[in-house]
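Note to self: keep these together.
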Amino acid sequence: QVQLVESGGGLVQPGGSLKLSCAASGVTLGSFAVRWLRQAPGKEREGISCIERSANGGSTHDVDSVKGRFTISRDHPKNMVYLQMNDLKPEDNGTYYCAVPVHCNSSIWLFDAWGQGTQVTVSS
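Structure:
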């Protein structure tokens, strides 16, 4: 059974940093694209950062709102994907999830394995 577990969220002041982790079991994340998404209160869940399959080059993609601030990366031996978030802003508030799409430009999920997400709160 495929499971994805997000962690690393918390309360941080504007301009601060957090590093989120996506831990997987039952699947080798390095063999697939991985996308980070977030959902703000009252808003639709949106993809924010994605890393492509390592065999396909592992290119990364970010939405404009996080470019230059967020970095997605892999740790193959630990079977984990991370999201380093710097210069956090109040608009980054929300619950963050990781998921596995067919590729970074796809809205089709390979696994129905959503975790509970991890909450990020940016406030002074």
